[in-house]
């Protein structure tokens, strides 16, 4: 590999990349990594690894790896070798090193717990390249993209889930000494294998514990329908299978997964099913050996399926101009309307794009005669002057009884500002103030939030994926909005695909898709082949701009190659293993593309 150090400019990095590609000894894996680093526009002249406070050490990966790293640390004694484990995003979860000089050098390049060493931030390096390629990799000296890392030799091995074979993270050995690359890689492979074996053991113990609690629930005096779920397993008895079918079945599982992902929740939750019935879920956690093995749901289904839609599209608008007839949406609208009309302080919870702002504005237009709607965003700065001015503004707006004051996205407020806002609101006389409406995202709100308790009512606006039956109405509404002539329609197959999409950005994303299609004059009937790539995935994850571009490139490649994964991977210049990993990450199912 060439030894010349590139300058700080991207041009210098490209010049060195040209030398690497012309070097017969250069490995394709390293060349591909350098190419990605240039595309990410990583600065080769400085290290810039983002820092994540309090990385998750409660995951199966961390629980399996930390004892192994601790034992290995004792064996290596004062050798100038550092061991570390990262999650799949490149966040360093743990690092062990007893050599003082090496510790100092690693700290200087931010190779420490909490820092993110993904390629998009640090360029070619052992951790990032192993995660990006899905293969064991040795990055030594000048093979590193960033100059500050070129004194190190790193052997990194991906860690995969023992059964699903999905990427969990990576194990990395780093040293400043030149030695046997083969020995270093052999040790890294061995330790990664030990970690995977321990993850398998932990998973097995967890699943056995979940199965035991599931069987106990099924064999109780009055068992009824029972569901058990964790990250890897779904179990249900015959009573549940026969009681909940069709779209109700999928809606119930979707709700159950979301509840299971919140380890704080236990108790009872009632959810409205697409058929109009109510499912009452009694939630309990399966905990063994101080570990969360999964969640047990005892289910009671209330009511009978409706023979048709719960309500017609026209009647659900109730003069508010809102579209939708799903039970959860209608319930959220009714509860919000009741609080608004009564002038109660309200906390409106919902994911981004779910329709919180639309609901408030519709109520103000229909029911807010004589009242002024005032929207207040979170302050852009956390300086004392900015926060004091923001609080003063809130106080002045609430001092006018005719105002409806909307504090948007209170989950974005810093802790000290939340405390000051709480103090301000606590000392206000609610009978002589304007109406307060706060909006938040559910993943950011705790169940015992004091701000929430200051409100008279709290309403959760359901995400679009829980409003399966409303998608057809929304598609028609947006088509008419952006094609007022009414000349556009949606084919049944395209509508089915739109209804299967998880819509991580909710109604806002659906509107964006329909708006884009409506602007294409050649499209009169929306067909499956007209839909953008984002409608052909099953992932609920909200993607960054770069991730969305990568997802779309993979989807278009698969569609052009008739879902041939191998040929698409070759076209994109990535390995088949990486291709499959990225497909799992983005929820891409090749069979759904043809």
TrEMBL record:
InterPro entries registered for this protein in UniProt: AAA_lid_NorR (IPR058031), GAF (IPR003018), GAF-like_dom_sf (IPR029016), Homeodomain-like_sf (IPR009057), HTH_Fis (IPR002197), P-loop_NTPase (IPR027417), Sigma_54_int (IPR002078)
UniProt cross-references to Pfam families, sorted A to Z: AAA_lid_14, GAF, HTH_8
Keywords: ATP-binding, DNA-binding, Nucleotide-binding, Transcription, Transcription regulation
Sigma-54 factor interaction domain sequence ranges: 391-519
Top-rank taxon, per record: Bacteria
Keyword Transcription set for record: yes
PANTHER family: TRANSCRIPTIONAL REGULATORY PROTEIN
Identification of the protein by name: Sigma-54-dependent Fis family transcriptional regulator
Organism: Streptomyces maoxianensis
Taxonomic classification: Bacteria, Bacillati, Actinomycetota, Actinomycetes, Kitasatosporales
């Amino acid at each position: 590999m060439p030894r010349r150090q590139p300058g700080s400019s991207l041009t210098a990095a490209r010049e060195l990349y040209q030398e690497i590609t012309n070097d017969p000894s250069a490995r394709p894996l390293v060349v591909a990594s350098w190419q990605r680093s240039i595309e990410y526009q990583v600065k080769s002249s400085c290290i810039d690894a983002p820092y994540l406070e309090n990385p998750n050490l409660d995951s199966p990966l961390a629980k399996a790896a930390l004892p192994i790293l601790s034992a290995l640390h004792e064996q290596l004694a004062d050798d100038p070798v550092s061991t570390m484990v990262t999650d799949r995003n490149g966040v360093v979860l743990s690092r062990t090193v007893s050599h003082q000089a090496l510790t100092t050098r690693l700290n200087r390049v931010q190779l420490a717990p909490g820092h993110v060493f993904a390629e998009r931030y640090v360029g070619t390096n052992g951790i990032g390249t192993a995660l990006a390629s899905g293969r064991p990799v040795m990055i030594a000296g000048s093979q590193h993209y960033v100059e500050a890392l070129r004194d190190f030799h790193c052997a990194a091995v991906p860690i995969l889930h023992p059964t699903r074979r999905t990427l969990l993270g990576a194990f990395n050995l780093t040293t400043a000494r030149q030695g046997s690359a083969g020995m270093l890689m052999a040790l890294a492979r061995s330790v990664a294998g030990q970690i995977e074996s321990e993850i398998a053991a932990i998973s097995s113990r967890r699943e056995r514990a979940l199965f035991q609690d599931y069987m106990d629930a099924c064999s109780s005096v009055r068992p009824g329908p029972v569901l058990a779920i964790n990250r890897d397993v779904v179990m249900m008895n015959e009573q549940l299978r026969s009681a909940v079918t069709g779209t109700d079945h999928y809606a119930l599982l979707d709700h159950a997964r979301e509840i299971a992902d919140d380890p704080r929740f236990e108790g009872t939750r009632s959810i409205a099913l697409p058929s109009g019935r109510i499912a009452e879920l009694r939630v309990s956690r399966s905990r063994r050996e101080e570990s969360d093995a999964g969640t047990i749901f005892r289910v009671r289904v209330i009511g009978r399926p409706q023979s048709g839609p719960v309500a017609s599209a026209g009647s659900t608008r109730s003069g508010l101009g809102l579209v939708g007839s799903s039970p959860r949406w209608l319930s959220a609208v009714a509860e919000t309307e009741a609080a608004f009309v009564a002038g109660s302080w309200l906390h409106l919870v919902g994911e981004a794009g779910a329709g919180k702002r639309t609901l408030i504005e519709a109520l103000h237009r229909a029911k807010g005669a004589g009242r002024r709607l005032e929207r207040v965003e979170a302050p852009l700065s956390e300086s004392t002057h900015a926060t004091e001015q923001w609080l003063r503004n809130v106080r002045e707006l609430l001092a006018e009884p005719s105002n409806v004051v909307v504090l948007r996205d209170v989950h974005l407020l810093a802790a000290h500002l939340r405390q000051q806002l709480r103090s301000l609101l606590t000392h206000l006389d609610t009978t002589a103030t304007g109406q307060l409406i706060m909006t938040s995202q559910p993943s950011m709100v705790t169940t015992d939030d004091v701000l929430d308790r200051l409100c008279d009512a709290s309403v959760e606006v359901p995400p679009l994926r829980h409003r399966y039956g409303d998608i057809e109405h929304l598609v028609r509404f947006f088509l008419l909005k952006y094609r007022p002539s009414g000349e556009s329609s949606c084919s049944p197959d395209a509508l089915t695909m739109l209804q299967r999409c998880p819509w991580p950005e909710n109604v806002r994303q659906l509107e964006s898709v329909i708006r884009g299609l409506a602007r294409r004059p050649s499209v009169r009937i929306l067909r499956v082949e007209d839909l953008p790539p984002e409608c052909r995935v099953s992932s609920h994850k909200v993607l960054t701009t770069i991730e969305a571009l990568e997802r779309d490139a993979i989807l278009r490649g698969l569609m052009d190659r008739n879902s041939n994964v191998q040929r698409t991977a070759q076209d994109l210049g990535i390995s088949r293993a990486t291709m499959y990993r990225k497909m799992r990450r983005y929820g891409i199912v090749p069979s759904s593309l043809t």
